[in-house]
From TrEMBL, chains A, B:
GO terms for molecular function: DNA binding. It holds the Pfam family Penicillinase_R. Keywords: DNA-binding, Transcription, Transcription regulation. InterPro entries: BlaI_family, WH-like_DNA-bd_sf, WH_DNA-bd_sf. This is Predicted transcriptional regulator. GO terms for biological process: negative regulation of DNA-templated transcription. SUPFAM superfamilies: Winged helix' DNA-binding domain. Belongs to the BlaI transcriptional regulatory family. Gene3D superfamilies: Penicillinase repressor domain, Winged helix-like DNA-binding domain superfamily/Winged helix DNA-binding domain. The keyword Transcription regulation applies.
DNA sequence: GTCGATGAATTACTGACGTAATCTGAAGTC
DNA sequence: GACTTCAGATTACGTCAGTAATTCATCGAC
């Protein structure tokens, strides 16, 4: 069974960020890390952390007087959720139109193009 | 100057759908078209249409006793907005990781792969 | 064993969104 | 011209997200 999607908001994803880089972390460390990239109030960050806990997107283990938090939702799972959501909502669930869109509207560097070509090669080799 | 983004909600995008297929349309036609794909109440659809008007995502021109509506935000512009939003929020603004993600996690048909190869060829030819 | 600090839990407020119901004004009907 | 009808405009209401402030519980300091 695929991991059932855990929807998190954009603000919540920014609180996941430090946990995706390193875990477990104490809330104080999370607050510090998030504040390095934003001007959110400590209270705000703790609220978001608690909501993530409520949703099951992070877990907490008691460490003496405080908790240590770890991600349950992985960054990859989240990226999958969000990508699939865009795909379904905006491109009728089909990948090719999305990629065509990107190739038309986003500047792809020569390096991007090269990398993509290698990806395609790898996919074809896998299919045969 | 790029068209400034007009954020619309998911429900609103479903009301744009018939207008993207054909325009202008009277509200009654829009209601009928949306109801073909959903069970929303007529009032709900008209409310969404009005919000879209307020946001400037559609325009209205008087036609006797009623209005005819046309999209201002094109489907392509909307797809661009949403794609860029995903890219920035989830993939740090870089295209390659997004595509790598798709190639790893989404099933691409042989036809998709072929199509993509052609796109890459076209891009390279344009760049030289 | 009381007091303050500090983390966690609870509560709060605003705006947007989903989902309508109600009100209004003009156009057609009798 | 009063009455109905219907499109559009206004108002409503619960929920969730963003952004906190407030309260509670516990642990260490005196």
């Amino acid at each position: 069974m695929l991991p059932s999607p855990i929807p998190i908001s954009e603000a919540e994803s920014l609180v996941m960020e430090p946990l995706w880089r390193e875990s477990p972390l104490a809330s104080e460390q999370i607050v510090a890390a998030v504040q390095a990239d934003s001007d959110w109030h400590e209270k705000t960050i703790r609220t978001l952390l608690n909501r993530l806990l409520g949703k099951g997107a992070v877990s907490a283990e008691k460490d003496g007087r405080r908790y240590l938090y770890s991600p349950v939702l992985s960054r990859e799972q989240w990226q999958s959720q969000e990508s699939r959501n865009l795909l379904d909502r905006v491109f009728g669930g089909r990948v090719a139109p999305l990629l065509a869109h990107f190739s038309r509207h986003e500047k792809l560097s020569a390096k991007d193009v090269d990398e993509l070509r290698k990806l395609l090669d790898a996919i074809e080799r896998k299919e045969h």
